[in-house]
Amino acid sequence: MIVFDESGQVLQGVGDLxxxxxxxxxxxxxxxxxxxxxxxxxxxxxxxxxxxxxxxxAASQTAAFHFSRNIAYDNGxxxxxxxxxxxxxxxxxxxxxxxLFMRNHGVVVVGDTVAQAYRLLYKLEKVCKAxxxxxxxxxxxxxxxxxxxxxxxxPNPQTSHSPAERxxxxxxxxxxVLDRVMPGYAD
Length: 187
Fold this sequence. Notes:
- Helices cover 48% and strands 13% of the residues.
- By secondary structure, the chain is an alpha+beta fold.
- The protein has two domains: 3-154, L-fuculose-1-phosphate Aldolase (3-Layer(aba) Sandwich), CATH 3.40.225; 158-187.
- The strands form two sheets. Strands 3-6-5-4 form a four-stranded mixed beta sheet, sandwiched between helices. A two-stranded antiparallel sheet has the order 1-2.
- The two termini are 13 Å apart.
């Protein structure tokens, strides 16, 4: 991973700064105020974004809770980002949401912490996979009723941890899994 400033100066890490990454990430940080910007081309999210109708449906509790009002859609892919104006355009589309679906390209997830953004990105890939698999059956997808979407979208008042603490715990657990399954991955 490379950490760079708004001018493209590498602050941490080794390697060259990719122009398209700079043109997307720098404006996203500046215009959205996000501390973390994750841009990926994950298999299942990309597959969904390759469809004519690339909407993530509120067909599961996870989709409704995390994404029902949290996704912006950029359906105007025009090729690799080669100018800061493209990142500015994407940030404008994202607005105050946390997820940007980029038609024929991938996704952007923003957050206040790595743990928050990672958890959202991980759950996004899971629900995209579930939706693409459900669509592959050819059967109609049963959406949650609007009242159910409202109900599951509300945080549980009886939870013992704040959202930030839940995100931190989730990320720590995922890192333990990675340490166990792929020891030495960080070398």
